Amino acid sequence: MSNPTYTAIFYLFAAITVFSAAFVVFSRNVIYSAFSLLFTFFGIAALYVFLSADFIAVTQVVVYVGGILVLLLFGVMFTNNIMDTDLKTDVLHAIPGTFLFLGILAALLFTFYTTNGWMPSDTQLQGSVVERIGFETMSRYVLPFEMASILLLAALIGAAFLARYDNGGTNEH
Amino acid sequence: MEQLTTIGINHYLTISAILFALGLYAVMTRKNAIVVLMGVELILNAANINFLAFSHYNGGMEGVMFSLFVIVLAAAEAAVALAIIINIYKIFKSVDVSSIDSMKE
Amino acid sequence: MFELPSGAEIQSIISILKSGLGFFIPEIYLSILFMGLIILDLALKGRNKSGILGWATLIGLGGSFYFIAQQHAMQAGEHFFGMYVLDEYAIFFKYFFVASGMFAVVATLADRKFDAEVKSIGEYYALVVAMVIGMVMMAAASDLLMIFLAMELVSLSAYILSGYFKRDARSSEAALKYLVYGAVSSGLMLYGFSLIYGMTAETNILKISMELADHGYDPLVMILATLLIMAGFGYKIGAFPFHFWSPDVYEGAPTPITAYLSVASKAAGFALLLRFFYIAVPHGVSPYEDILGIDWLTLLVIMSVASMIYGNVVAIWQKNVKRLLAYSSIAHAGYLLLGVIVMDEIGTQAVLFYLLSYFLMNYAAFYVVVLISNRTGSETLDDYRGLGSKMPLAGAALTVFLISLVGLPPTVGFIGKLMIFSALLSKGALYIWLALIGVLTSVISLYYYMLIPLNMFLRESLEPNEKSLNPGFLAQLMMAVLMILTIWFGLFFEPLSEFARYSSAMFGLSLY
């Protein structure tokens, strides 16, 4: 598609995503990182809409922003006293890390731009995928769906056990 | 110019590559466990962009379904991770991955 | 636009799902057991709660053998739209993982530290069962999505289990390290999966292999994807460049969980590795193979050699028995990888047999470590001094298990190594060097393994008291049985090796 408005909006969201993600990584303050991640998740959700995955975009907003990010913020606030100035997260091995970052980025981009190995197709996904997701979930993806429920149950009871406050070892009786 | 104005699969792959590299950088260089976790979330999101981009351009539903399950899983993983990190904080009064090292080589 | 499927289509989907259900009974049973244990935990009150839950888990897991045994009669094939595959290979690992779950429960029941550290044991047994479900699914998954979900179920349960002593600093630290490395490597693996999906537009591993064979592939993307996926698998099997978590996690985690991770989780990684690399990834001579001079096989060879050398050499300096066994488990991952790179039926048979022998000797060694730390409260090598006279049976049994881990006759470990090396030798010149490295590193391992019996029998205790430390009748019986089994299968290994050969049949495999 080469509609200029479309292109401009795409670049806007792409820029939001990339720059806020960079801020997450390079910021020295955990709180700033966490809030910056909010913009990354929103930007990615917008990109999903461009990819005609509207349902995934909504799920991204609900689960990532509403769930995971809130959890992360809770984590930051639990483990740091906000009034403290000591919110900094120190950088370890910054120089080798930067080389690694640039190396991986270059390798991935080189691979992506030189390859023609992606499976092409004449029929792209168009329009809304909500109905198709519903259909797939209840047909081909029944087993992963059930598997995910066991996984969530295990994660739930495990996380509840670990985070639960209990004092003492065996003074149950 | 044609390359820039026509949004194709490479645009999405570029964004995903940048997010992936940034996430890996956070994992490698950051000492705060929560920031490491944010890096992991960036990697998962990069993979999700890939899945959806490929799915969009090859017309299949597998990538869309895959990314949905990845989001489910990321939520579960974040919950468990935060529980562990809060537990660590109770004991060590720190979430600094490099200072939590009570076992010696 | 999406067209709603017709009534006939929906009927056919329902009938496919219904027919798949019949092949899925052990997993359904285990899921019910998992939920039942959570409910039982809530319902039970009173003093003996942890014992009752433990025995309930043990009996429940044992009951699943009945359902697994019935699957031998079933036709190998894919079910649930290619998500799940039932074949002899998957059945082998079902037995393996259920048995290892049972052994983890046995070791837990023997471990006194749980009584002191843990207030609520209900979640523990439920998560052990959840991990069994995840590992069973790992061995039977034939879709990238199922592989990912199953691996994550195993990982999430394992994070929590390794941090189960939540007031203990080392256990919590183990959980954190396991989590950080696990989350990163699963992210890398996922990115690799996304590249594979981009190349083939399929997530089913059989269809991926067909697609790659039909349309060819870009070797650069392929090697990138393989590297990333290897990070995920390498983490699970604990092989060299992805081993960083294992010493700390093995040392810090509760000992039954250490044993469980070192045997079952590693075996699950190998189950996946074999199926994925034998079926999904192309092999054989193709015009694409030799660009860059590396393919996945070369990567596996490097991983294997590095694991054997690194694990065995670093283990020499260890002062903690659990940590020593952690490094030894890295080395064993290297030996097992040798069997993987043979890439034929004998190699697969050797890997499966080695896993069985590793199951027996490693679990048994950790069981004795649990019993000793019950009495002495310590796992350091120095505290093993003079234990041979105080716990003669434990000392003798541990010596047998360690001899087996070295790979000396007449134990089951010897047969395992012999099968791996003979599978290598039958493949030709290059492989002889690999076998030679394997033998040489085994010689190194003799030194550090024998440090333990040396301390137990030949060195005097640091604080001499002649009190005998009897570990109890049931524990002694268990040790004696395990000791006899280790030697028995070293002499009469026919049934095990036949079972391994029978189980090396994978559905959809065209490699051998």
Automatic annotation (TrEMBL), chain A:
<dbReference type="InterPro" id="IPR001457">
    <property type="entry name" value="NADH_UbQ/plastoQ_OxRdtase_su6"/>
</dbReference>
<keyword id="KW-1133">Transmembrane helix</keyword>
<keyword id="KW-0472">Membrane</keyword>
<dbReference type="GO" id="GO:0005886">
    <property type="term" value="C:plasma membrane"/>
</dbReference>
<feature type="transmembrane region" description="Helical">
    <location>
        <begin position="57"/>
        <end position="79"/>
    </location>
</feature>
<keyword id="KW-0874">Quinone</keyword>
<keyword id="KW-0812">Transmembrane</keyword>
<feature type="transmembrane region" description="Helical">
    <location>
        <begin position="91"/>
        <end position="113"/>
    </location>
</feature>
<feature type="transmembrane region" description="Helical">
    <location>
        <begin position="6"/>
        <end position="26"/>
    </location>
</feature>
<dbReference type="InterPro" id="IPR042106">
    <property type="entry name" value="Nuo/plastoQ_OxRdtase_6_NuoJ"/>
</dbReference>
<keyword id="KW-0520">NAD</keyword>
<keyword id="KW-1003">Cell membrane</keyword>
<dbReference type="GO" id="GO:0008137">
    <property type="term" value="F:NADH dehydrogenase (ubiquinone) activity"/>
</dbReference>
<dbReference type="Pfam" id="PF00499">
    <property type="entry name" value="Oxidored_q3"/>
</dbReference>
<feature type="transmembrane region" description="Helical">
    <location>
        <begin position="31"/>
        <end position="51"/>
    </location>
</feature>
From TrEMBL, chain B:
<keyword id="KW-1278">Translocase</keyword>
<keyword id="KW-0520">NAD</keyword>
<dbReference type="InterPro" id="IPR039428">
    <property type="entry name" value="NUOK/Mnh_C1-like"/>
</dbReference>
<keyword id="KW-0812">Transmembrane</keyword>
<keyword id="KW-0560">Oxidoreductase</keyword>
<keyword id="KW-1003">Cell membrane</keyword>
<dbReference type="GO" id="GO:0050136">
    <property type="term" value="F:NADH dehydrogenase (quinone) (non-electrogenic) activity"/>
</dbReference>
<feature type="transmembrane region" description="Helical">
    <location>
        <begin position="34"/>
        <end position="54"/>
    </location>
</feature>
<keyword id="KW-0874">Quinone</keyword>
<dbReference type="Pfam" id="PF00420">
    <property type="entry name" value="Oxidored_q2"/>
</dbReference>
<comment type="function">
    <text>NDH-1 shuttles electrons from NADH, via FMN and iron-sulfur (Fe-S) centers, to quinones in the respiratory chain. The immediate electron acceptor for the enzyme in this species is believed to be ubiquinone. Couples the redox reaction to proton translocation (for every two electrons transferred, four hydrogen ions are translocated across the cytoplasmic membrane), and thus conserves the redox energy in a proton gradient.</text>
</comment>
<keyword id="KW-0472">Membrane</keyword>
<comment type="subunit">
    <text>NDH-1 is composed of 14 different subunits. Subunits NuoA, H, J, K, L, M, N constitute the membrane sector of the complex.</text>
</comment>
<feature type="transmembrane region" description="Helical">
    <location>
        <begin position="66"/>
        <end position="89"/>
    </location>
</feature>
<comment type="similarity">
    <text>Belongs to the complex I subunit 4L family.</text>
</comment>
UniProtKB/TrEMBL annotation, chain C:
<dbReference type="GO" id="GO:0042773">
    <property type="term" value="P:ATP synthesis coupled electron transport"/>
</dbReference>
<feature type="domain" description="NADH:quinone oxidoreductase/Mrp antiporter transmembrane">
    <location>
        <begin position="141"/>
        <end position="445"/>
    </location>
</feature>
<keyword id="KW-0812">Transmembrane</keyword>
<feature type="transmembrane region" description="Helical">
    <location>
        <begin position="349"/>
        <end position="372"/>
    </location>
</feature>
<feature type="transmembrane region" description="Helical">
    <location>
        <begin position="430"/>
        <end position="452"/>
    </location>
</feature>
<feature type="transmembrane region" description="Helical">
    <location>
        <begin position="257"/>
        <end position="281"/>
    </location>
</feature>
<feature type="transmembrane region" description="Helical">
    <location>
        <begin position="296"/>
        <end position="317"/>
    </location>
</feature>
<keyword id="KW-1278">Translocase</keyword>
<dbReference type="Pfam" id="PF00361">
    <property type="entry name" value="Proton_antipo_M"/>
</dbReference>
<feature type="transmembrane region" description="Helical">
    <location>
        <begin position="122"/>
        <end position="141"/>
    </location>
</feature>
<comment type="function">
    <text>NDH-1 shuttles electrons from NADH, via FMN and iron-sulfur (Fe-S) centers, to quinones in the respiratory chain. The immediate electron acceptor for the enzyme in this species is believed to be a menaquinone. Couples the redox reaction to proton translocation (for every two electrons transferred, four hydrogen ions are translocated across the cytoplasmic membrane), and thus conserves the redox energy in a proton gradient.</text>
</comment>
<dbReference type="InterPro" id="IPR001750">
    <property type="entry name" value="ND/Mrp_TM"/>
</dbReference>
<feature type="transmembrane region" description="Helical">
    <location>
        <begin position="220"/>
        <end position="245"/>
    </location>
</feature>
<keyword id="KW-1133">Transmembrane helix</keyword>
<dbReference type="GO" id="GO:0008137">
    <property type="term" value="F:NADH dehydrogenase (ubiquinone) activity"/>
</dbReference>
